[in-house]
């Protein structure tokens, strides 16, 4: 079911009507409607046969924190009854070990399901024991990576005592299965999302017009940008040959840059809007990433919730672990900066290795993850050298020109990373990268594209995409300057607004028809 | 007093209390503008004189006439069967309800309407490989539904369009909402001349048939829903003409086979004879599917025959029943007027045999005897080529001749310069590939003929070079 479809509109309308109707009688019971809608959506959009995996994940991450809470209580009792300080300490240590064992078992269960369904077949294929990456016929549940990571964040936060665990399994299941988030995230935190799902909402408090505007903006990005480009990108990179001109590669990667952003952030806008119609605000996942001034900044603006998840549950625990502290101490002999940053650099490499694997077990994803980790690590390590160079060259790092330079530089660095992300064979990624510098051959650009099946009409139709990109660029630039663009548009008089909506609808209608054969669902649907 | 800027800011933030009346008025104005935009765009951009609208308007004009046979299907069916030829031979009264890219569920609608209006006794459903393997015909769906709506009462028209929006192929896709703006689906070229011409045609007072003749240059209407072109295929462009290069190669979709079953069952329930015909195409455009063709078509045949309908694959007919000529085709998929006349005469013979109770299966090669079919092709249907780069950087042109298994083929490769001068770079031989000398510019002409022939070529194609 596409988010821009009559079936989704009807589904949303029925769910909203039921939600606010129930709310008129009892706001405390409204969450039941959300749960019913979420489970129905999962069965409608995903495969109902895979619902069991989500239920299993929810059951594990519901039961384990309750067990941990019970252990805490038992620990307190034992410590209270202990005769001396040593006995109290021994009891605490014993229970801490048991708590850790429960945590590890729950984590293994959650990640075990994810690893089996998502990676096992690919792994067998890579070592030559499976005919294809999908030959085992394992059904990949919709949104498994998202709900697994979200559930694990709940589990770990509960382990760390950040909140009281939810006693009602169905309420916990709602947190795991909330339908706008299962397609492609964001990865929400229980402390933010849980209370919103469970408290009642009234229709009059919902910013309907803003939500609809955001839904339309997302649809514009998804249909007029992402779907329009996916076919051309596929034609360029599906048959990489040794002589592929660098000019074609760069063109393909730039298109991918726009497509990736349009697809992912467009989809997120649409689900955020759908969620906010219920009065539930999910975590933001994008903040104009192509305006980033460094790769680290990019990852604070792109797929934000994955970045914060990695920061909280991988980076920090690993960076402050005993071996990393020892490494830092040893490295500090070579310099204070190195001692401070080296553990973080290693942790970054680990984080981005996992980010790569999260996208898939194929070598090119691993390479993409490591590339990002390596660039960020090197940027950290070399920060003093860059600072000294800036001073020596008398660069005004606070100037607008320097900011533009940093944005362009980051854009280029990000795009080099896309080579490893989008070109599905690692060897081909390297080949394309080499040809970008050694065989740019702009004179072969048109001919090569036409031989790859990219016809003149496809290039001509990109005019629509260019208009959509221009709209997105203007909106993003204004937002970057702190302008409330939605508010401005909603403040226009209704005739102007109507004309503006006509233009956007026109773009979506035309591009949706042009691209109906080229694109499938959202790219991130199975991550 | 608050400034207009402050009021706008409040309105945008949703913080200020806005009167419900004003909100409703604003919403109505916005919706009104969008509806007006839709109406204006439909008027200017939606194709006036589409072949779907010709079919439905002519069908309605035949309301008082006797129709006992209908032809349904996509453009391949539309351009394969000449109703007048069938009627002259069989004494029937045939009307063609086939329209370009008509999906099977629209064929169902057409059959249902014909049964309801005329109690037809025979339905000829023309299909090709893509009818069963390719699903995304939303533009055709919209054009078909809009054309059907044109002469209907408002309530029926709304019901028909709603049925389209909630149909399985639309309901879960963006089409279900975007089709509310039908001009996006069946529009003229988005340039000034085409839009102005469309508006002028719409306002000229011409009926859709006259408009269709203007819009579809070279198209002639012959009556009873049937129209065709006279153009003849250029076999040297076979590569662009193969259906596989246009649509890709997929297995038949179960949903489409189910739709075929639904048509067969509809006919069964109403005592209507259904004849499913795989329409003729040049041999190269059958051979291009390889083993997929007999594999998938035999699935279709089994399904059709299991429902009690008759199945005829015009491409598999023995030469004594039907043997198309080179000039019968307009392109890789369609017959032209002369070709359709010849095929309709041959097909009328098949129907006569069917009416006489004969087993028409014996008129064709069986899919189990695919080798016999391949051996029955005695000509080179077409040659196609591609260019690759060898490891040493030289261009290599490879050719593939589509022909029967018993035909011996030889190739010659010539370099055609920009000044049209030709140089033989590899003379006649059985080798189907050729290294192009480094530094060559222009195109490579690939000629092919049967061994023993002294002709300059039987077929040729041109191959552009990458440098």
TrEMBL record, chain A:
Task: Kindly list the residue ranges recorded as spanning the membrane.
Answer: 6-22, 29-45, 51-69, 101-121, 127-149, 341-359, 365-383, 404-420, 458-478, 490-514
Its record classes its membrane topology as: Multi-pass membrane protein
The family classification in the record reads:
Belongs to the membrane-bound acyltransferase family.
Report the GO terms under cellular component: plasma membrane
- Where's it found, cell-wise? Cell membrane
Query: Which GO biological process entries does UniProt record here?
Result: alginic acid biosynthetic process
Q: Pfam families per the record?
A: MBOAT
What does the record give under GO molecular function?
A: acyltransferase activity
Organism annotation: Tractidigestivibacter scatoligenes (Olsenella scatoligenes)
- Its protein name is Membrane bound O-acyl transferase MBOAT family protein
Protein's UniProt keywords contain Transferase: yes
**Primary residence:** membrane
Supply the alphabetized keyword list: Acyltransferase, Cell membrane, Membrane, Transferase, Transmembrane, Transmembrane helix
Automatic annotation (TrEMBL), chain B:
Which InterPro entries does this one have?
A: SGNH_hydro_sf
Gene3D superfamilies in alphabetical order: SGNH hydrolase (3.40.50.1110)
What does the UniProt keyword field contain? Membrane, Transmembrane, Transmembrane helix
Source organism superkingdom: Bacteria
Question: Where does the sequence pass through the membrane?
Answer: 24-45
Specify the protein name: Uncharacterized protein
Q: Which organism is it from?
A: Tractidigestivibacter scatoligenes
